[in-house]
Amino acid sequence: MRRVTISLLTTLGAIVAGDAGAADATGESTYQSSCVACHGADGVGVLPGVPDLTTTDGPLALADELLVKRVADGFQSPGSPMAMPPRGGNPTLSDEDLKAVVDYMRKEFGVR
Ligand code: HEC
């Protein structure tokens, strides 16, 4: 019962905070709030120009520092029909949030 109450409070807290940039944002919550619309629940990308993150030679083969920088600044590869917006379009995301979400992407979609 105690555990149920605690998780309920946590959920309520997250709803009240209502902000992906909150200090307690996890990689997963950031992904779900700011990235999933373009990258999709399974990381293969749902819009033209969004790369498949699940292939061994895809973007997740690149180093963390480069990926975090590109996510922070925004990024468009030559000839791509769409750019990756800076911080996924959510300026409240901190660099720590971006590191956490790149870690999450690696765990969920990257080469295991
Ligand atoms: C509006 C759609 C959109 C949203 C929202 C979005 N992305 Fe992207 N993302 C893209 C597109 C398009 C590209 C490919 C850009 C290109 O190669 O020209 C991309 C590329 C990337 C890449 C690969 C970069 C590389 O070096 O090839 C990573 C990593 C990434 N996004 C992470 C994220 C994260 C993390 C978020 C959420 C904070 C996010 N994206 C939100 C559209 C989006």
Characterization of the model:
- There is one protein chain.
- With 112 residues, the protein is an all-alpha fold.
- It has a single domain (2-109), classed as Cytochrome Bc1 Complex, Chain D, domain 2.
- The chain is 48% helix and 0% strand.
- The chain has helices spanning 2-17, 27-39, 64-73, 95-109.
- Helix 2 crosses helix 4 (95-109).
- It binds heme C.
- Heme C binds at residues 30, 34-35, 37-39, 49-51, 59, 62, 67, 70-71, 75-77, 80, 82-85, 87-89, 101.
- The site of heme C has 26 residues, from helix 2 and helix 3.
Keywords:
single chain; mainly alpha; binds heme C
How do the helices and strands line up, and which of them pair or pack?
Blueprint: H1 2-17, H2 27-39, H3 64-73, H4 95-109
Helix pairs in contact: 2-4, 3-4
Bound molecules: heme C (HEC).
Residues 30, 34-35, 37-39, 49-51, 59, 62, 67, 70-71, 75-77, 80, 82-85, 87-89, 101 line the site of heme C.
